[in-house]
Amino acid sequence: MNSTLHPLDSPLSPIYCRECVRTHFIILDTAYHGNSSSVIQLSPYKFNSKGGEGKCDAVHILPVPDVFRYTAPLSNSQTSKGTIQQRSERIVRESGDYMEKFIKDIGMDQKKKCRHNLFPKNLLSGFICESILSCGGQVELPENYLSTIYSKVRNVGGICIADEVQVGMARVGSPTSFWGYQTQNVHPDIVTIGKPIANGFPLGAVLATKSISDSFIKYNQSFHQRQRSSSVEYCEHPFFFTNNQEHSTFAKNRGTGFHSSNGLSVAVAIEVFRILREEKLQQNVIEVGQFLKALLLNLQQDFSELIGDVRGAGLFLGIEFIKDRKTLEPATTECKLVASMMKDLGVIMGVDGPYNNVLKLKPPLCFSTDDCKFLVSRLREVIQSIERRRRSASKL
């Protein structure tokens, strides 16, 4: 799709129309999946923000599985107690329980059919999730999180969508994971890819299972027959490469839908993949990402009262700022000040998370170790300056 709109727009129509009556979606809190009217309905980051219209009845929100400051959905237990592994396991278990309770409460029993062999209207269409949460604050999902949620969704006939717009294209820094969802050892039914596929040139892509691709084609053929036009093409081989045999098999069994695509858009995407391969950028992300995270962890040790957490993978990292290590009170003002002062030093950084206290690091894949040293040295200067201000203010 040679469009800057989110590629999720294309698969939404056949998903909503699947079985003619499936309407419900499950999403994660703080998620952002795009800025078109249909996708905003699946984005709490937009519909719950200032000027948003709120959640529609067919959208259901799961809590963010944030190991650093997670609040258990089904109990009053304090998940902040225990090791990271213990907290991760508890999050996965209680999130799975939450899914079962949610499905039971709204009666999404896909096996229960009504007259004329049709399903009732309150059926689950699907679950969509980023493989690392971006607007949620660069949150890495706990091990086995997606596999647990995917199984609950598929048990009631829903489909699972991986939003790879921000975390895909070799960004997660793994030799076996070109896409973020591969770090969770799952196989989505649909994968959406956005701007990085053509390095910012307007292009999006959708990978899907054969059955969903066929449904997509059938839906669009029916629509365009009514409109007496056609603008959808189908390609059996999506534009990506991988050395991972498992994902190569995935590719052969998937397809790609293009809406009003053109040769220039496709040519740019092919060139991007060529550069990724020939310049070995996936390996660069692995090495530089590990180097950068180590520098940030050292920075956290030196400023442990202000930096609460360093997290993420590859070149998709986040620094969470806090005021108190016991209460985890967000240091929103300080985080925004860091971003502002970094801009004055020539480094542009974003701020996100539910409390706007997470500094986002998403440098280009060609980032070098020298770039990392420059970045962290500037961060150190800025944080030292802020710490001095805090100490001076406390004496007044």
Overview of this protein structure:
Helices cover 39% and strands 17% of the residues. By secondary structure, it is of the alpha/beta class. The strands form three sheets. It has an eight-stranded mixed beta sheet with strand order 2-1-3-6-7-8-10-9, with helices on both faces. A four-stranded antiparallel beta sheet has the order 11-12-14-13, with helices on one face. Strand 11 and strand 12 form a beta hairpin. Helix 1 crosses helix 6. The radius of gyration is 22 Å and the shape is globular.
Helix content: 25-40%
Task: Look at the helices and sheets and give the structural class.
Answer: alpha/beta
Order of helices and strands: HEHHEHEEEHEEEHEHEHHEEHEEH
| Gross morphology | globular
Question: Quick one: biggest sheet?
Answer: 8 strands, mixed
Please state the oligomeric state of the protein chains shown.
Answer: single chain
Global Rg:
22 Å
How are the strands of the largest sheet arranged? Answer: 2-1-3-6-7-8-10-9
Distance between the first and last residues' Cα: 58 Å
Overall mean confidence score, pLDDT = 80
Strand content: 15-25%
The strand count comes to: 14
Can you tell me the residue ranges where pLDDT is under 50 for at least 5 consecutive residues?
16-20, 72-79, 108-119, 226-234, 236-260
Tally of individual helices: 11
Topology:
Elements: H1 9-17, E1 22-28, H2 37-40, H3 44-47, E2 59-62, H4 84-105, E3 123-130, E4 132-133, E5 139-140, H5 145-155, E6 159-163, E7 190-193, E8 205-209, H6 210-227, E9 232-235, H7 245-252, E10 254-259, H8 263-278, H9 281-302, E11 307-313, E12 316-321, H10 332-344, E13 350-352, E14 358-361, H11 369-395
